Amino acid sequence: MTGQMERDLELSPEGNVKLKLLKEKVDPYTGLWIMVLHGTPGSMLSRHRHYGQIYGYTLKGAWGYIEHPVWLSKSGDVVHETPGSVHTLYIDENHIDTEVLFFVWGALEFLDKSGNTIYIEDWRSISMKYIDYCNKNNLPVIDITYPKQKVPDVEFKHHPSKMDL
Amino acid sequence: MTGQMERDLELSPEGNVKLKLLKEKVDPYTGLWIMVLHGTPGSMLSRHRHYGQIYGYTLKGAWGYIEHPVWLSKSGDVVHETPGSVHTLYIDENHIDTEVLFFVWGALEFLDKSGNTIYIEDWRSISMKYIDYCNKNNLPVIDITYPKQKVPDVEFKHHPSKMDL
Amino acid sequence: MTGQMERDLELSPEGNVKLKLLKEKVDPYTGLWIMVLHGTPGSMLSRHRHYGQIYGYTLKGAWGYIEHPVWLSKSGDVVHETPGSVHTLYIDENHIDTEVLFFVWGALEFLDKSGNTIYIEDWRSISMKYIDYCNKNNLPVIDITYPKQKVPDVEFKHHPSKMDL
Amino acid sequence: MTGQMERDLELSPEGNVKLKLLKEKVDPYTGLWIMVLHGTPGSMLSRHRHYGQIYGYTLKGAWGYIEHPVWLSKSGDVVHETPGSVHTLYIDENHIDTEVLFFVWGALEFLDKSGNTIYIEDWRSISMKYIDYCNKNNLPVIDITYPKQKVPDVEFKHHPSKMDL
User: Where do the ChrR-like cupin domain residues begin and end (chains A, B, C, D) (predicted)?
Assistant: First the structure.
C-alpha cells in the first residue's frame, strides 16, 4: 500500500490536470498540503496566484509556466515558487505523462482574464473535495490530516495509524 | 531608533485599527510579514479569513474576536491562529490602547456580510501600501524586505544595513 | 492570568539569564519553542550555535552579542538569527532589566572555549526542565505543547483549554 | 540537465548511504536543505537525532528505521519526522536500490552507542562537503544556496540562473 490516495481530485475549476493527495499530509496548523499533480501532455492548471510558498519536485515528465516560456522543469528538478507569484502551469507536449510532487503552504487563488478571483483552494477546500469524492464513490473517508488534533468542522470517519516516527 | 516604522498603515478597507510594519521584516520567500497592530478601545479589524498561520503576542491592552465572546488576549498572551479560521478582531472597551505583535504568513482575505471577497492583504500589498505612504509623506522608502535578493516588481530606494547576526 | 508561565528556568548551564516559557507554545511537530528571555544589566547567555532560525523581539531594555560590538537591540526591535550563527548574548549595562520574546526553531548548542559541545537545548529538553521545575516547586504540570497530539515520552498532568481560534 | 548535483556526498561519518544535494536548495535563512538520499539494499545511515522537522518522500525502493521494525516506507510514501526523534535508517534487503527525497530543516546529530555526539550535520556542513568534493574532483563550485544573498563564510565560485518563478 502506498502513501498516495488513489483518488483523482480536480484542483482547479478550469484546468484539466488532476492531483492525488498524500496520505495524512494535510496540516491544519501550518496550512501545508502535500500532493502529486499529474497530467497528460498538453494539459493545464489555469492561471493562479500563490499566497504562500511552494516547493515542487518533478517525479517524471516535464512541465512549465506559460508566462516563462524558456524554463522547463524535468525529472529530478526542484522549484520554489514565491508567495505572490502568478502563473499558468502546463504539461509539456514533447514529454510523457507528468507527475510533480508539490508541498503547498497556504492558498492558490485562481484568476479570470481580468485578474478577478474565481476560486481559492487551501487545505480545507481540498480536504472537503476529498471527502466528497470518497462519499460519492463509496470509499472510506480516511483522516488525511496531521497532526491529529480534531479540526472542528471537518469530519473524517476513519483514522489511520500514526505516521511520524 | 527602534525597529518599528513610524508609519501608520491601514490594514483593512473597513476596520479602524492601524499597524506598524517592523523594519526589514517582510519576507518575499516565505510570505511572512511582521507588524504591530494597534488601536484604541472599541476599534475593529473587519471580518477576515487567514490563508496561512499566524502567531500573535499581546504587548499591552486587551483584544478578542467577536465570534469567540469569552476569550480575551491580554498583555503577555500568545495566540496561534490556524489557516482557514475566520473572525473579526476588536480592541476591548475596558482596557487601554492595545498593541499586538503579529507574525503573519500568507494572506488575509477580508469578507463582506455574504462571505464574498472584498480584498486580499499579503506581503506584497502591504509593502505597496508602505511605499505609497512614504511617497505621499515625503519619507524615505526604506527596503523592508529580508532576505535582500531583489524582488522584480517592488521598488525600494533606501537599503538599511544588514539585520541578521 | 497571562500567557507566561511564572516559572524561571535556566536556559544555559553557564549563563545567568532566565526564561519564561509561553503557555502552550512548545511545538513538537515543527520544533518551535516560544519564550521570554529576561535578565538584569550585565547578565549573559553563554556562547552558543543555532541549528534552526530564530526571531527575537525586544520587549524592554537592551541587549547584544559580544561578537558584534556595535549592534544593540532595543525595545521594539526585531532580529532574525540565521541557522549556523554562533554568538554570546549579553544584557546591556547601561539599560534597565531586559525582556526579549524569542521564537526558536530547533536547537541551541552551547559551546566551550574550544568550540566543543557542552549541551544542546531544544523543545524537548526545555519541556523536561519545565516539568522538573514544577515538580520541585509543587506547581501543576500544565501541558505547554501545541498541537495537543500526545508526545510519547513527555508526561503532562494538566491540560489547559484550547488556545487556537 | 537535471536539478540534482551528480556528486555523491557522504552524509554520515559511519553510514554507507550517499546523497545528492538538489541544485540551489540549501537555504541559509531557514536552515532547510533538500537532498536525495540513495543506497543499495542493506546499506545504513547510522543512528542520529533530528533537531528540526523532516519530510521524506520515497522515490523508489524501500527503507525503514531499525528502531521501528514493522514500519517500511515504499515508493510514493511520505513521512514526517518530528524534532527530537532518534533512529537508524536502513535500506530494505528485499527491495531494489532506494532513493528518498528529504526536506531537512536544521541539524542531524549522529550518536555513538552511549548516546554521545559524534558529529552534527546542517546546511553549512553539507555545503562545505559539497565544496570540498567539487574542488577535489575539479568540478565547478556552483552556488547551491537560495535565496542568493551572500553568506559571509561560504565561498561559491559559480552562480546559476534564478530558480524561483
Answer: 13-105
Q: Which residue has the higher pLDDT, B72 or D11?
A: B72
Q: What is the largest CA-CA distance in chain B?
A: 47
Q: Cα separation of C108 and D120, whole Å? A: 12
Contact A130, A148 (CB under 8 A): no
CA D124, chain centre distance (Å): 12
pTM of structure: 0.89
Helices (runs of H) and strands (runs of E) counted in chain B: 1, 12
- C115–D contact, CB cutoff 8 A: no
3-state secondary structure of B117: strand
> Which of residues 119 through 138 in chain B touch C, CB cutoff 8 A?
none
Q: Interior CA angle at D53 toward D49 and D57, to 5°?
A: 100
CA-wise closest residue to A18 among A40, A47, A42, A49: A40
- Least Cα distance to C56 among C93, C29, C6, C17 occurs for C17
In this prediction the ipTM stands at 0.87
In 3D, which of A78, A90, A86 has the Cα closest to residue A108?
Answer: A86
User: Does the structure show a pLDDT above 80 at A131?
Assistant: yes
Q: Does the N-terminal peptide bond of residue A147 adopt cis geometry, omega within 30 degrees of 0? A: yes
In 3D space, the residue among B44, B40, B57, B55 whose CA is nearest the CA of residue B88 turns out to be B44
Q: Three-class SS of residue D11?
A: coil
* Residue C23 near chain B (CB below 8 Å): yes
Q: What is the pLDDT of residues B112-129, one digit of tens each?
A: 999 999 999 999 998 888
Q: How many angstroms separate the CA atoms of C38 and C24, rounded?
A: 19
Contact B78 C3 (CB under 8 A): yes
- Comparing CA positions, the residue from D118, B22, C66, C29 lying closest to residue A30 is C29
Please report the pLDDT score of residue B25 as a whole number.
Answer: 82
